Amino acid sequence: MEKIEKMKQEFMALQNELLPLVKLENSFRKEEVQLIAGVDLAYWDAGGKAYGTCCIVVINYHTKEVIERVNSYGEIQVPYIPGFLAFRELPLVLEAVKKLSNEPDLYMFDGNGYLHARHMGIATHASLYLQKPTIGVAKSYLRIDEVDFQMPENAAGAYTDIVIHGEVYGRALRTTANVKPIFISCGDRIDLETSTAFVMDCINRESRLPIPVRLADLETHRARAYYMKKEEE
């Protein structure tokens, strides 16, 4: 416990140090965006150790065609600590990014960005290393300071802002009628309106999730099964 508490203090200090670098405004023109990457991770235990894989799927924003798929894999060195997931995920994310032959203009993460107790979810934290605009796209809502979200209307594109302590942290967005909302937030270098527009532009009939995130999620299932089987051989 003492080791975990020390890690938490170190991680929190770094989050607080990085936060002033975060910009919730567009660093680009929307028409410049050609390639969008979806990022997701999956974990499993084997032999008393924790392992993970990070999968990145890059699509053409205009045609929605898949341009590239890459993944990374390795033993996880940081334990799961609520509020500090980025420290567990970032090494695999950066390793996968190194494998890309195409440079994404924008990254969508399966997870939170500014919608985080200290505004430093994986989408925000990773952007400071990637130097690219990022969006957090979460399937479920992680309550902050006991604040619940308000359910948006049952219509595609309907949303409600998630306001905590008088500040907008993110947005509950219903991407398709008759489905549960998803929870989006700025990562960095982008504003919430533009984040919402990109997410809605990447929705099709197959999922409530934007295409890059859904494809990355599917890739993690395949990659995890592959690596788990490989370990057993």
From TrEMBL:
Protein purpose: DNA repair enzyme involved in the repair of deaminated bases. Selectively cleaves double-stranded DNA at the second phosphodiester bond 3' to a deoxyinosine leaving behind the intact lesion on the nicked DNA.
Question: Could you say which EC number(s) this protein's record lists?
Answer: 3.1.21.7
Task: Check the record and name the Gene3D superfamilies matching this protein.
Answer: archaeoglobus fulgidus dsm 4304 superfamily (3.30.2170.10)
A GO molecular function assigned to this protein is:
magnesium ion binding
Q: Where is this site: Interaction with target DNA?
A: 80
Instruction: List UniProt keywords, sorted A-Z.
Output: Cytoplasm, DNA damage, DNA repair, Endonuclease, Hydrolase, Magnesium, Metal-binding, Nuclease
Keyword Chloroplast among UniProt keywords? no
Superkingdom assignment: Bacteria
The record's section on HAMAP family has: Endonuclease_5
| CC cofactor | Mg(2+)
Which terms under GO biological process does the entry name? DNA repair
* Name of the top EC class for this enzyme: hydrolase
Record-linked Pfam families = Endonuclease_5
- CDD domains under this entry? Endonuclease_V
Listed binding positions for Mg(2+) are: 40, 110
What's the protein called, per UniProt?
A: Endonuclease V
The organism named in the record is Lysinibacillus odysseyi 34hs-1 = NBRC 100172
Q: Where in the cell is it found?
A: Cytoplasm
User: According to its UniProt record, which reaction does this protein catalyse?
Assistant: Endonucleolytic cleavage at apurinic or apyrimidinic sites to products with a 5'-phosphate
Family membership noted in the UniProt record: Belongs to the endonuclease V family.
Gene Ontology cellular component terms for the protein in this record: cytoplasm
